[in-house]
Design a protein that fits this description.
heterodimer, A: alpha/beta, 14 helices, 15% strand, B: mainly alpha, serine acetyltransferase, domain 1, two-stranded antiparallel ribbon
């Protein structure tokens, strides 16, 4: 729901000129970099629930531990899986939260909880982190949308991928929607094409000049309609078209053109959906997009690869092989560009996995004691926060709840966790649920 | 423990119409008797009287009556979920009879599209617009059940009684073609607390769930009341797997208590108005609840549905949000809520009666154009609010406008089914509660501008409908433009538009081709706010 003031601001931005050029002239300016750079967030979403025991909270020597070895990171004392060697080079930039404790062990409910900070209850459409960041840090006059979701697997909990009560203006622009099926037999693995914005190209039989004429007619049509029927709905329609057209017509869309990158760079990220998605995330953050999410579902087109109920170790090793070069390259590139200090990277899934290894060499759903990772800007790196018992079955100290975690993430982005947003049920909702406290040692 | 019993007396008072507090709002001649509210014209007049009094009090100038084009488009969308076809608009305009509006309503109420549209409404009410896989799988079942109830115009109290008393466990192992309200319980995971929250919200207009964990600071409901109401579903236990042993769901019809949350403290089932159930042998706990809920004098039941029906037609409830009746959230026209409820009860819970009465009002038939600055507040109902379309309305209206001949199958969101319908509908799912505040997303705009569906419909190679208009030997350019306007916007072109578009088409636009220019106009119409909104 938009406040009146928001609308005033929006409509001021979206004033329609007398002709086409009026609609688009400002676009060149809008595409220029913003002078006051705000923070950005990249969410690396591990669909299915990643195994903390085989990534960031290893238990070597214990029966629950599994075969993987620990390796040292750049930060003394912080050790992670041997299958994350690139990331280990950035140990000083990582805050590994090993004491997550949550209550939802169902994919859909867990995803909703972790993505919005609230358990799904009744009619309240809690906004996910992406929508909150878009609402708080987005700019309505930028050529690129303020939230982009790359290759999401939304089926577990579609509501956790929408804008919630913040409304379609804060809905993520989704790219690579159907791309998680790439890799299945018969699918053409064209990640370059898959990560472009859907329907952004004109239909084949309409050239640019022709399209401008049509848009001119539409502008006239809309102007007349808004005069007769002023209101939220008609104004929003106009605004969405302006933003869509801006994206179509300006250089901003080039952000989605991965072919601009050198082959060596594209190779370094990994020639797979997640790797190329991380590269796209870097390109978007470079251009001022405040929130980008990249999902790592499966590597063979199965969508929820971290859901390793059987054969956990082979799968996690393979997934780590995709995760590590992509995330490592992302850190390198952001650092080289001076963006790492202003970009927060969040690594998480809907829950962790059972410390106990089941008879199928798998691990099952486990919300009791698990791990999330924060990296880059706004946090104190080089630490593991909290710990679990030797068998991994419980949190030993400094338990972190979902409201705590949410508070920590948004605070690292410079957003007040206690801020209240107007919801769809007529009462305000806090960004982090009541009782949530940002972890001092991490964001301090 | 007395602090638990904070019965909202003032609330009861404000919704029981005999209360003297309501008296000042009733004009001397305005004491409307139930029997007068029981016929369509009587109730329609009562509505217009209350709305009219509100306008007068607030010094608001009402908008004039909508013309026939606007009325036809609105009533087709509201009753059948799609815009009218060109031929339907023309037939309505050609009808010279004075009662043609009510006759159109009667015709639409008998049409299969009415059944489909209101079946979607039921589904969206009971299931939400969820695209969750499991819910998608169950969607056809709830649709099958709702469809037959809508088709037979089963009285509302009977529908709800059926929903509240259906055997839950007997329904296990149902296939997606089953026809049973039991699905509602599966969608609510067979959990008593979820069922309590859902049923009180849907059928009583009361949001209890905030009181599930603690006494709610903004509402009158206490945690104890929540669990007392939840106890009516206390006999239902979801299936579970404990230590590898699967226990199926169970449904004990005689359980009348439940433990509060995670505690051991048990409470007994009690109605929301604070009264104790009069338990009878051989009447199950849920039957006892259903009896109380659907009683004609239940202070919540009829008001909640009357308000919901109002929201269906106006986009905003008299009490808004529609499921949040409480003191701190008063109705814009409190007496009107009472009268709608009274009339509805007197009609024996006939949903079509409510529909007829609302559509027969001047209030409903006003234009949605803003004709006076005092009309800004939508809840004065001085003009018809602009409403967003449901995903189904978007697809069905697009399909109608362009004469789409592909599969328009009405069982939507079938799990895993790829179709134009699914693609459009998932793109146009807007999780915004107030339809008057619908917002267009960038991807929606891109999909209408460049997406395959509209591109095909506006292509001279691929759109049969468009070609039929463009190549018609009987029409001049203006006629052709009017026909495209009728197809997309259910009205002919205005003078101001003609002065712009006639030269564009005559000169052929950028391609110097009049046929392509007509296609451009059609594209513009399908991309306009006027197309994508119900006005």
């Amino acid at each position: 729901m938009l406040s009146r003031r928001d609308w005033m601001r929006l409509s001021a931005v979206g004033v329609v000129g007398t002709c086409l050029s009026g609609w688009f002239e400002r676009l060149a300016n809008a595409a220029a970099p913003h002078p006051a750079r705000k923070r950005a967030c990249i969410l690396l979403w591990m669909n299915g629930g990643p195994s903390q025991m085989d990534t960031f909270d290893l238990k070597p020597g214990h029966a629950n531990g599994g075969p993987f070895k620990e390796i040292a990171t750049r930060s003394p004392g912080l050790k992670i899986s041997e299958h994350l060697p690139n990331l280990a080079k950035f140990g000083d930039k990582l805050a590994v939260v090993r004491s997550m404790t949550t209550k939802e062990a169902d994919h859909g409910r867990g995803a909703f909880l972790m993505r919005t900070g609230y358990a799904p209850t009744g009619p309240i459409q809690y906004p996910p982190l992406g929508a909150i960041v878009s609402h708080e840090l987005g700019r309505s006059d930028s050529a690129l949308p303020s939230s982009v979701s790359i290759a999401p697997y939304r089926f577990f909990s579609p509501a956790a991928y929408g804008p919630g009560f913040l409304g379609p203006r804060h809905a993520p622009l989704v790219v690579g929607d159907a791309a998680q099926f790439i890799g299945q037999p018969g699918m053409n693995a064209d990640y370059t094409q898959a990560l472009k914005v859907q329907d952004i190209d004109l239909p084949a039989d309409i050239d640019k000049e022709h399209a401008d004429f049509r848009l001119d007619l539409l502008v006239e049509m809309e102007r007349e309609f808004i005069t007769r029927y002023p209101g939220t709905a008609s104004m929003s329609h106009k605004t969405a078209y302006e933003r869509a057209v801006r994206l179509m017509k300006t250089d901003a869309r080039k952000a989605f053109n991965l072919e601009e990158e050198k082959d060596s760079v594209r190779d370094a990220y990994g020639r797979n959906l997640f790797g190329q998605g991380c590269l796209l995330a870097r390109r978007l953050v470079e251009r001022g997009v405040p929130f980008v999410e990249v999902s790592l579902g499966g590597i063979n087109g199965n969508g929820f690869g971290w859901d390793t109920h059987t054969n956990n170790f082979d799968q996690v090793k393979a997934l780590s092989g995709v995760l590590d070069p992509a995330w490592g390259s992302l850190m390198t590139d952001l650092k080289d560009r001076g963006l790492l200090d202003s970009t927060l990277i969040v690594w998480m899934g809907e829950f962790g996995r059972t410390p106990k290894i089941n008879p199928g060499r798998g691990r099952d759903h486990w919300p009791n004691s698990w791990t999330t990772v924060l990296a880059g800007g706004g946090i104190k790196g080089g630490q593991a926060y909290g710990s679990t018992s030797d068998d991994g079955m419980s949190v030993r100290d400094k338990p972190v709840t979902v409201p705590d975690f949410m508070a920590t993430v948004v605070k690292a982005l410079g957003i007040d966790p206690d801020k209240q947003l107007n919801s769809n049920v007529g009462r305000p909702i806090r960004i982090a649920d009541k009782g949530g406290k940002a972890i001092e040692e991490v964001v301090g | 423990m007395t602090f638990w019993i904070r019965w909202p007396l003032t609330m009861l008072c404000s919704i029981v119409s005999v209360c003297s507090a309501a008296a000042p709002h009733v004009p001397a001649s305005g004491a409307v008797r139930a029997e007068h509210l029981a016929d369509v014209v009587g109730l329609a007049r009562a509505i217009d009287r209350r709305i009219g009094a509100g306008l007068k009090d607030r010094g608001v100038t009402p908008a004039p009556r909508a013309d026939d084009y606007e009325f036809a488009r609105r009533v087709y969308l509201d009753l059948t979920g799609r815009i009218p076809k060109t031929s339907e608009v023309r037939a309505f305009l050609d009808d010279r009879s004075p009662d043609k509006r009510s006759r159109l309503v009667e015709r639409l109420l008998r049409s299969p599209n009415y059944v489909t549209h209101f079946t979607y409404q039921w589904r969206s009410l009971l299931v939400g617009n969820s695209t969750n896989q499991q819910v998608q799988f169950l969607n056809p079942q709830i649709e099958n059940w709702a469809r037959s109830r809508v088709r037979d115009n089963v009285p509302y109290d009977r529908i709800v009684r059926e929903l509240l008393t259906v055997p839950v466990v007997a329904g296990r192992g149902m296939t997606p073609t089953s026809n049973s309200a039991a699905v509602f319980y599966q969608i609510n995971e067979l959990k008593p607390d979820m069922l309590a929250a859902a049923t009180s919200r849907l059928f009583l207009g009361v949001k209890l769930e905030c009181a599930q964990c603690h006494d709610h600071p903004f509402a009158n409901w206490t945690r104890k009341q929540f669990w007392e109401y939840t106890a009516f579903f206390g006999g239902i236990k979801p299936q579970s797997v404990v230590a590898g042993v699967f226990s199926p769901a169970t449904d004990n019809p005689n359980v009348r208590e439940i433990a509060i949350g995670d505690t051991n403290k048990k409470v007994q089932a009690k109605f929301l108005d604070g009264s104790e159930p009069n338990w009878k042998p051989d009447v199950s706990t849920r039957e006892t609840l259903a009896e109380w809920m659907t009683r004609p004098d239940n202070p919540f039941f009829a008001r909640a549905v009357a308000n919901r029906m109002w929201e269906h037609f106006f986009g905003v409830g008299l009490v808004d949000p529609v499921d949040d009746f409480r003191d701190e959230n008063p109705a814009s026209h409190p007496e009107l809520v009472d009268e709608l409820a009274k009339g509805f009860v007197a009609s024996n819970f006939d949903l079509k009666f409510l529909i007829r009465a609302i559509i027969a009002t001047e209030t409903y038939q006003r234009t949605s154009q803003m004709t006076h600055p005092t009309q800004e507040d939508l809840r004065s109902f001085a003009r018809m609010p602009l409403k967003g379309l449901t995903p189904e309305q978007v697809f069905d209206s697009l399909a109608t406008a362009v004469g789409y001949r592909g599969d328009t199958g009405d069982l939507t969101r079938r799990f895993g089914v790829q179709s134009a319908r699914n693609e459009i509908q998932s793109r146009f799912t807007n999780p915004v509660d107030r339809r008057t505040e619908v917002q267009t997303s960038i991807l929606q705009a891109l999909s209408l501008m460049n997406g395959k569906f509209v591109a095909d419909a506006t292509s001279l190679d691929r759109s049969e409908t468009l070609l039929a208009v463009i190549d018609s030997p009987f029409m001049n350019t203006k006629d052709k433009l009017d026909t495209l306007y009728l197809a997309a916007l259910s009205r002919p072109m205005r003078e101001s538009e003609a002065s712009r578009l006639l030269p564009y088409v005559t000169t052929g636009g950028p391609s110097r081709d009049s046929r392509k220019a007509l296609a451009d106009v059609f594209w513009v119409l399908l991309n306009s706010s006027e197309f994508i909104l119900n006005h």
